[in-house]
Amino acid sequence: MMKFILNDQEVTSNSKANERLLDVLRNEFSITGVKCGCKEGECGACSIILDGRLVNSCMVAMGSIEGSTVITIEGYRETKRFAALDKAYASVSAVQCGFCIPGMILASECILDKNPNPTEAEIREGISGNLCRCTGYNAIVKAISIAAKEGKGLW
Amino acid sequence: MVNCYNPTSLKEALDIIAKEVVTPYAGGTDLMIEPDENATYLFINKIPEMKNIVEDKEFIRIGAACTFTNIIENELSPAILKRAVSQIAAPAIRNLGTVGGNICNGSPKADSALIFFATDSKLRLVSNRGERVIPITEFYLGRKKTIIEKDELLVEILMNRNVLNNYYYKKVGERNALAISRVSFAGILNIEAGKIANCITAFGAISDVIIRRKNIDAMFVGKTIEEAKAVKEEYLAEYNKAIVTIKGRISEKYRKTVCMNLLNDFLESNGI
């Protein structure tokens, strides 16, 4: 039995210690906003925020998160910060197929949480572990800087 | 539920590893690529004694379970280490991956291990039987083979405080983010009173073990830049012999050529 906080709720998992957090989120908790792209930490589609930091949930064994706090897009979408990012992404059509977007949004949150006024280089660095095959990244980078401006005070 | 251990102190972890067959799990970023269903993981990611970065008179002491992000964010971390670590993978991996795991995984491509070679760092290995502090150059026996005993944990990396200036670092990968080093090189050269006080070079990702040849680098020590220039050809010829590259995803020849170019660039950047 593993206890942790998932999107503001204390939950108990029946998973094994060696199982990937990614698989447990999807299969046991039906949290399907975490996408499985590669299972080797290369694509960022399964990104979550673990104890305040962006991580790939495929790289996390359940046994390592006892007592930890996990935020997925399902929890994050209830926030004002999400609303600002949502609007900014939509305003420049930064989303096409959408597969990378839950991870991309959480990476965006971690960039702005650390630095509310990031430079373009800092934004690119912050999303460097999140692959997107549709947009060519430029629209996403633009969206994050728009969110930083329009959402002033939120971060 | 598969057995696992979540020790909250070093003593507790050592007691477990002394008795049980366990796989230490620090960041998980290497282990979870192919998680072993039958392994019993010893989770050492929350042991305070392994998460500190502190300094004493001689060393900067880095806890083995510090993540790459912990190192980047800590003001005590030497600049050469920050430079290399900030080029590892991407933020999400750096938030999990640890220096201890990078070293103990036994890969010659470990970007932080290269820096510990290039700074003549030492490793503090601890078990219930006692502890030993060994130079990192003595830690590796071959690819994925190290001298760590089954009941030992790497607890700290000890970096010499006085050789960390004037560094050179280059990582050659396929792209900027999420790249595994094809060739990596680190060098340090310091001049005191007009003479070369130390010259250290290390070559990563090109052989089974990171290459560090103290005897060759010693050719420059005690010499002026002009005197070093006079033996440069001889120095490079020695390295040309010492660097024996192996074929990986890229050819031996490419690796060798890049190594020699980086070495030469390091020397030229120091006026040699």
Written description of the protein model:
The complex is a heterodimer of chains A (155) and B (272). Chain A has 155 residues and is an alpha+beta fold. Chain A has 2 domains: 2-74, Beta-grasp domain (Ubiquitin-like (UB roll)), CATH 3.10.20; 79-150, [2Fe-2S]-binding domain (DNA polymerase, domain 1), CATH 1.10.150.120. Helices cover 37% and strands 14% of the residues of chain A. Chain A is built from 6 helices and 5 strands. Chain A has helices at residues 21-27, 73-76, 80-91, 101-114, 120-126, 138-150, and strands at residues 2-6, 9-13, 47-50, 53-56, 69-71. A 5-stranded mixed beta sheet of chain A has the order 2-1-5-3-4. In chain A, a hairpin with a 2-residue loop joins β3 and β4. The longest helix of chain A has 14 residues, at 101-114. Chain A is globular and about 45 Å long. Chain A starts with a strand and ends in a 5-residue tail after the last helix. The mean pLDDT of chain A is 97. Chain B has 272 residues and is α+β, with helices and mostly antiparallel strands. Chain B folds into 2 domains: 4-162, Uridine Diphospho-n-acetylenolpyruvylglucosamine Reductase, domain 3; 165-269, 2-Layer Sandwich (Enolase-like, domain 1). Helix content of chain B is 29%, strand content 25%. Chain B is built from 10 helices and 13 strands. In chain B, the strands form 4 sheets. Chain B has a 5-stranded antiparallel beta sheet. In chain B, β12 and β13 form a beta hairpin. In chain B, α3 (79-85) packs antiparallel against α6. Chain B is globular, with a radius of gyration of 19 Å. Classes of the chains: A alpha+beta (155), B alpha+beta (272). Chains A and B meet through β4 of A and α4 of B.
